[in-house]
TrEMBL record:
GO terms for molecular function: DNA binding. It comes from the Bacteria. Keywords: DNA-binding, Transcription, Transcription regulation. This is DNA-binding response regulator. PROSITE patterns: HTH_LUXR_2 (PS50043). SMART domains: HTH_LUXR (SM00421). Residues 148-213 form the HTH luxR-type domain.
Length: 215
């Protein structure tokens, strides 16, 4: 493939000082394009410079990356993401943590398949397994249905804070640390939030928050 076909760039989100990754190296060769490496610190502290870039993430290393810099802003709509080396099917909540996910590759998939999918993403297409697509369709249908829900709900200021944390993909423990409260208190607030919003889980609460909360 000719390099000048592509206008958009994939960046490999990697651990600090990692020099090379065999999958990334082979995908670069297949596509004849460079995939620059970007570390979590760069992503966190220079977000404005990295708007609208495509982030490629090794799912097996994601927890390590997230531990380096907490609350990686992957759920932000500005980031398109490509996830590879996925061991098993992810829950909808896990998928949503990766923002505007454009492609997902399981561990068994060939380099040729990964490279082809990445090429499609660079050309503004999606490359998602059918089951993942079905999960996202179901989720966004719920978002549409939630438009009929009352926008005015009697939430406390603390409950609003917790809803905003949920939108970033934060765990109960992370929310507790950020708000200087116990994890038990977070769970208690979530119970009340779910009850007030008439939702059953975090995914539905996030859908409501995305629809009715500006920030």
């Amino acid at each position: 493939m000719a390099k000048n076909i592509y206008a958009r760039t994939i960046y490999f989100l990697t651990e600090k000082n990692q020099q090379n990754d065999p999958v990334i190296d082979q995908v670069q060769k297949q596509l004849c394009v460079e995939i620059p490496y970007i570390e979590p610190n760069d992503l966190m502290y220079a977000m404005q410079l990295h708007k609208h870039k495509i982030l490629m993430i090794d799912h097996q290393n994601y927890q390590t990356l997230n531990n380096q810099i907490r609350d990686l802003p992957l759920s932000n709509k500005m980031f398109e993401t490509i996830l590879f080396n996925v061991e098993k099917r992810l829950t909808t909540e896990e998928i949503l943590c990766f923002g505007n996910i454009k492609a997902l590759f399981y561990r068994h998939e060939s380099i040729e398949s990964i490279a082809r999918g990445c090429g499609e993403v660079i050309n503004s297409q999606n490359w998602l397994p059918r089951k993942v697509t079905a999960q996202l369709i179901h989720y966004y249908r719920h978002v549409i249905l939630s438009q009929t829900s009352p926008a005015t709900v009697d939430l406390t200021s603390r409950e609003i804070q917790i809803l905003r944390c949920l939108k970033t993909g934060a765990s109960n423990l992370q929310i507790a640390d950020d708000l200087f409260i116990s994890e038990f208190t977070v769970k208690s607030h979530l119970y009340q939030i779910f009850k007030k919003l008439s939702v059953k889980n975090r995914v539905q609460a996030i859908a409501w928050a995305n629809q009715h909360m500006l920030s």
